[in-house]
């Protein structure tokens, strides 16, 4: 599953029926938890805990250790639900997340840069000058139900699009 790029795709990680149930719950009247620069985060509906459980059952948390330079198996810290917003972005600005974290983003709608999904900078977790010559932007597309596991120290860019909906599991 792991790749030197700093992320790995898991097609069909979540069943279509759970994805549809989650979308219906999110379209309901969920309370906004917070707004970030790129997305609105909502209170987590209970169906998203079922998505978490299905992901763990289908993939196993031990598979996440290959993204860290340490053992033991990372612990699930949080489940987040969000919808990307359209933004005016600086195409040169890069972002990062938690260095010691692993993220599992599960697409509830198709996700791509056109609807807000991040543009990863492959191999950017290695900040050495020699490695920077191998960095490249990666615009990936996820179908609803697909997941991407990515390192928190991987850099990424915000595209201008919005409306993509996702669940993210955060491991530390």
Description of the molecule:
- By secondary structure, this protein is of the alpha+beta class.
- Helices cover 15% and strands 28% of the residues.
- The model has no long low-confidence stretch (mean pLDDT 91).
- The chain contains two helices and ten strands; from the N terminus they run E-H-E-E-H-E-E-E-E-E-E-E.
- The protein starts with 6 loop residues before the first strand and ends with a strand.
- Strands 1-8-5-10-4-3-2 form a seven-stranded antiparallel beta sheet, covered by helices on one side.
- It is globular and about 50 Å long.
- It has a single domain, classed as Sandwich (Jelly Rolls).
- The longest helix has 14 residues, at 46-59.
Features:
single chain, alpha+beta, three-stranded antiparallel sheet, 2 helices, 172 residues
């Amino acid at each position: 599953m792991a790749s030197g790029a700093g992320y790995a795709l898991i097609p069909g990680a979540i069943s279509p029926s759970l994805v549809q149930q989650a979308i219906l719950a999110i379209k309901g009247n969920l309370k906004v938890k917070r707004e970030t620069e790129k997305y609105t985060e909502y209170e987590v509906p209970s169906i998203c805990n079922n998505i978490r459980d299905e992901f763990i059952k289908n993939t196993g948390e031990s598979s996440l250790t290959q993204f860290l330079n340490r053992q033991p198996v990372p612990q699930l810290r949080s489940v987040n639900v969000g919808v990307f917003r359209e933004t005016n972005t600086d195409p040169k600005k890069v972002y990062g997340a938690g260095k010691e974290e692993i993220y599992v983003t599960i697409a509830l709608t198709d996700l791509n840069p056109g609807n807000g999904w991040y543009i990863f900078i492959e191999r950017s977790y290695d900040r050495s000058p020699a490695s920077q010559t191998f960095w490249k932007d990666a615009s990936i597309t996820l179908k609803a139900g697909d997941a991407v596991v990515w390192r928190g120290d991987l850099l990424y860019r915000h595209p201008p699009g919005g409306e993509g909906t996702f669940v993210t599991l955060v491991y530390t």
